[in-house]
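User: I'm curious what two different proteins look like when written out as structure tokens. Can you demonstrate?

Assistant: Sure. I'll show them one after the other, since each token string lines up with its own sequence. Here's the first protein:
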Amino acid sequence: MSKPASPRNVGDKEALAVATSVRGSPYKLNLVAGLIRGKKVGDALNILAFSKKSMAVDVRKCLASAVANAENNHNLDVDALIVKEASVGKGLVMKRFATRARGRSARIVKPFSRLRVVVREQEEA
């Protein structure tokens, strides 16, 4: 006996992709995610392809995954998709140390982030 399937946490005309371990701080990732919020998917992919931020590579992968999920799993029209949500959260933090002068040490923090991208099919008006 298995537990029942969990309900979808996005709407009927929406698809979701989550990148759980993006190496970098949530602040830097949110700067890039803010560039694509509310944009059409084609425009968002172009913005990310030509962005100089290194986080744009990971955001682009997650957005491409959301588009593929929309097309293959939910039979949505790829040309009518817009980025409904691009939210960023904190992930785990690796802690390392660096030796310093006079027998002391300093903490090095290597943060990870979570990225959640939701694309929605826009109705033709």
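Here's a second, unrelated protein for contrast:
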Amino acid sequence: MNGNVINTPLDRALKLARQAKGGVAPRPAVGAVVVKNGIVIGEGATQRRPGQHAEAIALSKAGNQTKGATIFCSLEPHAFQGMAAPCTEAIINSGITTVVSPLEDPNPRVSGNGYRQLKASGIEVIRECSPKQRLEAEHLIEGFSHHIKTGLPMVTVKFAASLDGKIATRTGDSQWITNEKSRERVHEMRRQSDALITGIGTLLSDNPRLTARDHLGNATGRPALRVVIDSHGKMPESASLLREPGEILWVVRNDVDVRPPTDSVTILKASGANGKVNLSIVIETLGTRGLHEVMVEAGAELTAAFIKGNHVNKIAAFLAPIIIGGKDAIGAIGGEGIESLSHALSLDRVSHSLINGDLLVEGYVSSNTEISSTSTPKAK
């Protein structure tokens, strides 16, 4: 096949998957495009349960034109009867002759079985793609893959800081440290997350809505779940996030007597040590719900607690080209900190990008990070 014939529809399938990400868990976000004679005749992306899978939608839109066509999928078509019928069966019955799909599904119930079923039916399976496309395909399902292996969501800590690591001035002024384009990027990260976590301190000081909004300021309906860590149940009924659609998980200690202020609030009681919430219970609960990717946007102390509790898998740090200074200015990470550099939390697979002068640094918590009783533990 001509490189453009493969690459362009596959890029489109990846884009469709990216648009679905954050709205379809516990399903992985998948995009599919059906092409015949160089023309796109159908496309689709994963829908939230009980909706359809990407391949079924694309085939349905293509109608009776699928015989002899090619389908491009961002992930191996699933091959078992679940809430949805096997996509391999739909592809085989459609008369599709070629499947272009670079990435094997990490789910043990699929894990190559989709490819084997297609090949056994005489369908050509092409897995070749560019390194960039493969990286994109892997990134789209990294939370799903992590959940398959651990039963837990992938947790990303995001913060915005000055070059000297401050997230606010000594008076608490923090809006805005980063520029507008960086904030748009944050909203895209929120949109692609299954849940967003913050603490009561941030809620009381900033009164955030915790929603993902587009460049016009319109809410996208994501993330599907917003989580407030509030050990002593101080969330006020006037909080802005209560007026936004979508479920809120209000996490308090077992001995705190609170009632949901609205029908959208679910209470989770999770006592931990020293009068704090047990974050392990929170993360396990989100995993049980089938959520894949969770982002923490919180103050310095809660961020430190997530890191110290061994709950963080990824860091996304937005650094603005400004200096705040001051020993009383708030730093990005609180807590006691480490005693020696050998115990510092280190990152692997680090990437960086410039956003109108701001620097976004992203990396995955290293599995080789040393641990001591007073250091920041490594992530799972």
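A detail about the second structure: The first strand starts at residue 31 and ends at 36.
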